[in-house]
Specification:
The protein is an alpha/beta fold. It contains six helices and 18 strands. It has two domains: 252 residues; 95 residues, no CATH class. The strands form two sheets. Strands 1, 2, 3, 4, 5, 6, 7, 8, 9, 10, 11, 12, 13 and 14 form a 14-stranded mixed β-sheet that branches.
């Protein structure tokens, strides 16, 4: 690509949108093609350092020989695959309609396919620095030979097993909401960060695994971690001790009330449960009435350095099980609390014939 052959990005966009662009068009600057419902093809051999494709409902394919360093695809619902031989530094196609990627795709730095529910296949031997697949709920397996330093699989609930010859660098592994995994990949010995939120089937870490920064264990199946990791624990992003994470039954009401960090205190309350806490803390009863499940109480407890903790105590009419649920601190009646839990701002709008 020489300076004499380059076409200004605005002029190039105009040529493409009018159908006058020649094959082998080379673009100077950031080429943006957006909000063009009639655009269904790009010129063969198109070259640009940066290319953004946005809101192009009839674009069904990208041209052979496309040369681009940074490619962004946004809201192109008819684009289900990419051209063979595509090589770029960074590719972002979050929320895309992509179903599969070409076997010879090369992305050097970052490949972001997050929230692409139709994606079912990645090429074998894919090597990329950062791979973001969060929310790709149609993905049932990862490719053999996958190599990445940063791997984000949050919400990929259909994944159950790790591929052969997986190579993970010592970066960030995000498995939040990956309910199908029962273990971490074999051979991983060092990570910077590990997110295991809501991975209930993962009950232990690989022997010898070192985590340099933090590991989030909220909702996971872990009941302990090696002592060397105790100071690196997180619970939904909040730094906690192993006692808070794994032994909440040893916490006391006085300890919780004395905790000066509001975020840590909220985790402590989550771990012990509002019902346990209110039963022991001497909460004030703001209001009481009855519904189909029986007695209801609205309870309040002042929290030092934080907003009041207000909860409603009620029972399920069908099971009889009692729940204590947090509601906004400005709530003043049990009926107002029940209406808020049901999604109503005004209690007068909430009048169920039968509660279940």
């Amino acid at each position: 690509m020489t300076a004499a052959e380059l076409v200004d990005a605005e002029d190039a966009a105009r040529l493409i949108l009018t159908g006058d662009a020649p094959p082998g068009l080379e673009v100077d600057g950031h080429l943006v093609l957006a909000d063009a419902p009639d655009l269904d093809r790009l010129p063969d051999g198109l070259a640009a350092r940066r290319l953004t494709l946005r809101n192009l409902p009839n674009l069904t394919s990208l041209p052979d020989g496309l040369r681009v360093r940074r490619l962004v695809i946004e809201n192109c619902p008819a684009l289900t695959t990419l051209p063979a031989g595509l090589s770029c530094h960074e590719l972002t196609a979050a929320g895309s309609a992509l179903v599969e990627l070409p076997d010879d795709l090369e992305v050097e730095y970052r490949l972001d396919l997050s929230d692409s529910p139709d994606l079912v296949r990645l090429p074998a031997g894919l090597v990329v620095g950062s791979l973001v697949l969060r929310g790709c709920t149609g993905l049932h397996e990862l490719p053999d030979g996958l190599e990445a330093t940063f791997l984000d699989l949050a919400g990929c609930s259909q994944l159950t097993a790790w591929p052969r010859a997986l190579i993970l660098g010592c970066g960030h592994l995000n498995l939040a909401g990956c309910t199908g995994f029962a273990e971490l990949p074999a051979g991983v010995t060092e990570l910077a960060r590990l997110d295991l939120r809501d991975c209930a089937r993962i009950t232990e870490l690989p022997a010898g695994l070192d985590i340099r920064s933090w590991v989030d264990v909220a909702g996971s199946g872990l009941t302990e971690v090696p002592a060397r990791l105790d100071g690196r624990l997180r619970w939904r992003g909040v730094r906690v001790t192993g006692r808070i994470a794994f032994r909440p039954e040893t916490l006391t009401v006085d300890e919780i009330l004395a905790e000066t960090n509001a975020e840590v205190r909220r985790v402590m309350l989550e771990r012990v449960g509002f019902e346990w806490f209110f039963d022991r803390a001497g909460a004030e009863v703001l209001d009481a009435d009855r519904d189909a499940g029986g007695a209801r109480k609205l309870l309040r407890l002042p929290i030092p350095g934080d907003e009041d903790l207000v909860c409603v105590s009620l029972a399920c009419p069908s099971t009889g099980r009692r729940y204590v649920l947090r509601v906004p601190p400005a709530t003043r009646t049990a009926s107002q609390a029940a209406a808020w839990l049901a999604g109503f701002d005004d209690p007068k709008d909430y009048a169920p014939l039968l509660e279940t």
